[in-house]
Specification:
Helices cover about 20% and strands about 30% of the residues. It is α/β, with parallel strands linked by helices. The longest helix has 20 residues, at about 290-305.
Length: about 300
C-alpha cells in the first residue's frame, strides 16, 4: 500500500508546480510537490528574470523561487526535493506515484508540471566533453571560465541571455548561430550588440568538440557552403532549446511526437484527474508567467474534479 495519501500530487517544483501547490493547499487540499532536483526546476539554472510582473528591476531567479516555495509552504503544501518520479500507476484506488527510492504515494489527482531540460545537439565529442568544457548552464559553470574565451551555441532568448551573463567572467564570448539573424527578443539583441565582449559567428553550426582533458577547440560547419573551420575555445555553452521531462509518463498519458504532454483546453490529459501545466505541456507558451498561471488553473480544476468523486 502507498505510504501516504494526498488530494493532489504535483510533479515538478518550478513555477507551474509551485503555483499549483499554492492554489491547491490554499484551497484546503492535502498537497505534495515532488521535485527531482532543486526547487525552481529548470529555471534554477537561470541567473535573473526580468519579465515577471511586480519586479521592475528584475529579480534573481533563486530569490523568486524561494518566494514561490515559502508561499506554497505557508498554506500547507509539503515539498520533497530530490524526489524523482519513476512512474504513475492508475487503478480503482486512485493514482499511485512511485518514487525512485521505492516510496509510493496515493493521490486523488495529479498535476504534471515536470518542465523541460536543455536539449543536446548530438555533435561529435559533445557528450565526452560535457563537464570538461561543454556546459548547458552558464549560471552553474560560468565562474569556472573566468578570463577564458567561450562559445555560445544558439540564437534564442536563452542563448543571448546566458551569453550576456557569461561576460561577467569571460574575456570574450562568441555567439554561434545557424542563421544570419537571431530569434531572440530585440531588447536582448541590442543589449548583446552593445557589449564589447560579445562577438558573432553567423550561418554556422557546431560539428565537433575537440580537446585533451578539457575542450580546446570547436569545429564549425558553414550552413551555406559546408566549409569546416576550427575555432580555439576554452568552453562551449549550448542553448538550442529544451526537451520535456516526461519519460516517466510512458504508457501513462498521451504525449506528442516530441514527448510533450497533450492536454485539452481544460489542461486535463488523456487520463481523468491528471492535469498538465507549464513547459512540459504541448502548445504551452514557454514563459514563467504562463507556467505559473497554468499551474494555478490546474489546481482549481483538480479541486473541482475532486468534488465530483
Amino acid at each position: 500500500m502507498p505510504d501516504k495519501n494526498y488530494d493532489v500530487a504535483i510533479i515538478g517544483g518550478g513555477p507551474a508546480g509551485m503555483a499549483a501547490g499554492l492554489y491547491a493547499s490554499r484551497g484546503g487540499l492535502k498537497t505534495i510537490i515532488l521535485e527531482k532536483g532543486l526547487k525552481g526546476g529548470p529555471y534554477s539554472i537561470t541567473d535573473e528574470i526580468e519579465n515577471y510582473p511586480g519586479f521592475p528591476e528584475g529579480i534573481k531567479t533563486e530569490e523568486l523561487m524561494d518566494r514561490f516555495d515559502a508561499q506554497a509552504v505557508r498554506f500547507g503544501a509539503e515539498i520533497k526535493n530530490f524526489s524523482p518520479v519513476t512512474t504513475i500507476r492508475l487503478d480503482d484506488k486512485g493514482k499511485t506515484i512511485v518514487l525512485d527510492d521505492g516510496e509510493e504515494l496515493l493521490a486523488r489527482t495529479v498535476i504534471i508540471a515536470s518542465g523541460t531540460s536543455p536539449a543536446v545537439l548530438g555533435a561529435k565529442g559533445e557528450k565526452e566533453f560535457t563537464g570538461r568544457g561543454v556546459s548547458y548552464c552558464a549560471t552553474c559553470d560560468g565562474p569556472l571560465f573566468r578570463d577564458k574565451k567561450v562559445l555560445v551555441i544558439g540564437g534564442g532568448n536563452a542563448a543571448v541571455e546566458e551569453a550576456i551573463f557569461l561576460t561577467k567572467f569571460c574575456s570574450s564570448v562568441t555567439i554561434v548561430h545557424r542563421r544570419d539573424k537571431l530569434r531572440a527578443d530585440d531588447v536582448l539583441v541590442k543589449r548583446a550588440q552593445a557589449n564589447s565582449k560579445i562577438m558573432w559567428i553567423w550561418n554556422s553550426v557546431l560539428d565537433e568538440v575537440r580537446g585533451d582533458m578539457l575542450v580546446t577547440e570547436a569545429v564549425l560547419s558553414d550552413t551555406q557552403t559546408g566549409v569546416m573551420k576550427s575555432v580555439p575555445t576554452d568552453g562551449i555553452f549550448i542553448f538550442v532549446g529544451t526537451s520535456p521531462e516526461t519519460g516517466f509518463l510512458a504508457d501513462v498519458v498521451e504525449r506528442d511526437d516530441k514527448g510533450f504532454v497533450t492536454a485539452c483546453d481544460d489542461l486535463q490529459t488523456s487520463v481523468p484527474g491528471v492535469y498538465a501545466a507549464g513547459n512540459c505541456r504541448a502548445n504551452s507558451l514557454k514563459q514563467i508567467i504562463w507556467a505559473a498561471a497554468e499551474g494555478a488553473r490546474a489546481a482549481v480544476l483538480a479541486e473541482k474534479y475532486i468534488e465530483t468523486l
